[in-house]
Amino acid sequence: MGRRRTHLFVLLFVLGLVVASALVVASKPTRLGLDLKGGVELVYQGTPTGQVETVSAEDIDRSTEIIRERIDELGVAEPEVSRLGMTEISVSLPAVTNAQRAIDQVGTTAQLYFYDWEPNLIGPERAIGGRPGQQPPTAAIRKANAEWKAAGRKVNKQENQQLIFSGAFPTAYDAVLLATKQKPVENCTTCSVNKPRFYLFEGKEPHKLISGPELVRKDLYLTPLGEERPRKGIVLEVPVGTVVVSELPFDPAGTTIEDAAPGWYALKDRPALTGTDITDPRQEFDEANQPNVSFSFTDEGRQAFQQVTRAIAQRGQAQAIGPASSEQAEQLSGRFAVVLDNEVKTRPIINFAENPDGIDGRTGAQISGGFNSIQEAQDLATILQIGALPINLKLISQTQVSATLGSQALDAGLKAGAIGLVLVILFLLLFYRGLGLVASLALGAYGVIFFSLIKLIPITLTLPGIAGLILTIGVAADSNIVIFERIKEEVRAGRPMSSAIAAGYRRGIGTIIDANVITLLTAFVLFVLATAGVKGFAFTLGVGTIVSLLTAVVFTQALLGSMSRSRLLRSPNLLGAAQPRVRWRFDFMGASRWFFSVSGAILIVGALALATAQLNFGIDFESGTRIKVALEKPTDEEGVRGTLGSAGIDGEEIQRVSDPVFGDNVFLIQTRQLKPDRVEGAESSLAEDFGIVANGFDSTSVGPTFGKQVANSALKALVFSLLVICSYVAFRFDPKFAVPVLIAVFHDILITAGIYSLTGREVTSGTVAAFLTILGYSLYDTIIVFDRVRENIPRMPRAAFSQIVNRSMSEVLTRSLATTFSTLLAVGSLMVFGGPTLQDFAFAMMIGIASGTYSSIFIASPVLTAWKEREPGFARRRARIAEIDGSVPAFADEIELAKLGADDEADEEIEAAVAARQDAKPKAGAVAAIGPAGDGVGPSANGEPPAANPASANPASANPASAERRERNARRRARRQQRRKHGRHR
């Protein structure tokens, strides 16, 4: 009665949980990742600034907080900012379409410094622009004009005249060359950077700037996304205490000319204030209704601001002769420069007539001029308000997905999941009938509860996450299958239904726990070590596995327990538990040499393919840019190539593809890694020539740095998974059980890699997730087999290990095939109905599941048998059976095993017989088949003939006890042959 109450309580609890989950599913929205919703994903790598030597965990955490605050201020809905590894940050911005603006605002370091301009100019700059109100020396102007002409810049152009008369250089090379000649400042605590900075220029004139500034010399040879540059050109080092900045000219209205070439300055690195000295930056408008950024100061900042503006005002006053009007003072006054990330944003004049004692700063200050739009001023105010990043961020991966393509991927994923669930339910109903109905109810409860958890946690649902969700359907069904096969065994053995259900759950729970722990360990390692996309898969796989334990074990046990006396469960036929028409009676261990040969041949072919064709790594591993675009006007590959060539993009691979939404005028473009502005240039050129369908453009750019991190994380995940799982197998079973597990796993991974190489399919980060899931699922089947072997070892105390394994295999083969088939149904739906990403994942899973089932039966078990039979105890068993029966049968006879257990034969006698037979030097491999003396039996189980003269080989045969034992064994053989003749041997 107590048990029925317990079952009723569990059923009511699960029913309430399902109802609550259904309400959550109906009321709460699902958080979709950008691959399903569309948007921009950015991956940054943190590098040290001039003020820090290394990137710490605190720096990454602080940068993550700042990025999240910036995104919140920019109004992006449901962003996701997460840490990757030790130094990387992933930023997902759903529904964002302007990738360049997102990059500018999210990853800008925002190092803000304020300089007293004229005293910090160096050399010829100071000679020309360091004395406001005075005519520059003629020789200096003549030399500057010559330099600008030599650089190919027109000296009579108004915007260039501004820069020339302020002392600017025409190229970065000239300014950096001047900076390199300055003496370094030792232990500079007030400099913006306390480390030298490096610049890379072209070797030929005009020495175009290639990259820089960088704090590490080797970083000069990497693009912003991590692609390696040729190690050519001129490297210049700017010492500590000097900084190089650029400035764009402005038009008469004071607006920055964005498309103009900048001028360059070398400055003494002595900032008067930093960005940490300001507070409350905000976007406002000046008297001319132009956008500006105003701010206040901290107490220390206000004091420093007044001191520096007072110094500037006093210098200007010293230049004047007598009283000066405001207009005259403006010509003589010095400037106060605002420099953001080595770019001069503005250089306002400190008019000494209006501010003879400088500017107090109580009412704050403003950055005016240089803004081309209100949005630009608002973005700067936002960055200044949140604060500067403590480290530099380098963009190493960028992905842009259109909303239409994301919606298409979501529809395909949900369709594949629904079809997979229906197929699994149909299989359970057909194969297990009444038990299948119970399993279907459990799967329905599992689906509702799991989906509600996705919304409650919340889990950001991505394409890999959908793959994990669908895979957990197979895992949940597998748990039911393990239990149901146990129940069917008990029913066939004659147990009443209530006892069969209890015994089935009691004996199957250990297998389920072991198998699910393996899956959870794999998911955990994937989540900790893998990249962002794979994390989504790992998380959903782990959560789904935990939920399946509740529905597939606790719920189904309560449901079956409460129904044990119903008519539905009385008929074995309705349970699919009738006596099977076919009983597995195959000598798995005897045929192992053939299985090893087949696997060896497949592995050799795969190894040759890997050695010659190798693997087709996608841009997740090899740097590059992939663009998918749907065009309005019909064209072909050459037309697209010509348009891209006119935009300066060459060396690309172009392929026309068919899309269910956009039709056949869709092109897949793969080229070397492009910066975000180049991707936008490609989009603009294609739109201008052919037109782009609405939401028909998406792109992915990955640098080698990110690709190497993906590969390294995959390798780490593989190694750690193997170590953790093998440790668990050794703990739960036996240390020797772990070695066949390793061999089987490597067998499966090598076969899958070989097939990928032969087919030429692209290896992506999703494939990595599939590979690592293969590891866990391969072990799932192996655990099922090993669990039955472990169970049968004490039940068969006199059987050879090969007989134990053969019997275990015959008992669990149906269960292994059923679990594999149910999972293949779920994965097959991904293969047929999923989008391209899910299909790639499903392809690897299909191969891995098939290979994992094969290896667990035909590789892991024979390897375990070959090793365990070398143990002294099992060697003695095999010798005893061979001596009594003349050979070792594939399957043990239970009646004879019982009689052997009652014998008073001493192990010492068997050991003596074994030693004597070894003295006779049989052929290799004959140890396991020692025949009795003088009986003329045929060859042993491994094909070796018996000894020619056993009496001479066995000294123990001379005594009467040995002769009596031989006669007794002969009588047993005769009785056994008689039983076999009349069909009594099972």
Structure overview:
This protein has 986 residues and is an alpha+beta fold. The strands form six sheets. An eight-stranded antiparallel beta sheet has the order 2-3-1-16-21-18-20-19. Helix 12 (403-432) runs antiparallel to helix 13 (434-456) and helix 14 (463-492) runs antiparallel to helix 23. The longest helix has 33 residues, at 497-529.
Summarize this structure as a short list of keywords or feature phrases.
four-stranded antiparallel β-sheet; elongated; 22 strands; alpha+beta; 986 residues
Integer-rounded radius of gyration = 39 Å
The major β-sheet equals: 8 strands, antiparallel
The proportion of residues in beta strands is 5-15%
- Cα-to-Cα separation, first versus last residue: 41 Å
Helix/strand/pairing class, anyone? Answer: alpha+beta
Shape: elongated
Strand arrangement, major sheet: 2-3-1-16-21-18-20-19
Q: Give start-end ranges of low-pLDDT stretches.
A: 894-911, 920-958, 982-986
Helix content: 40-55%
Alpha plus pi helix count: 29
Mean pLDDT over the residues: 78
Briefly say what this structure is.
The protein has 986 residues and is of the alpha+beta class.
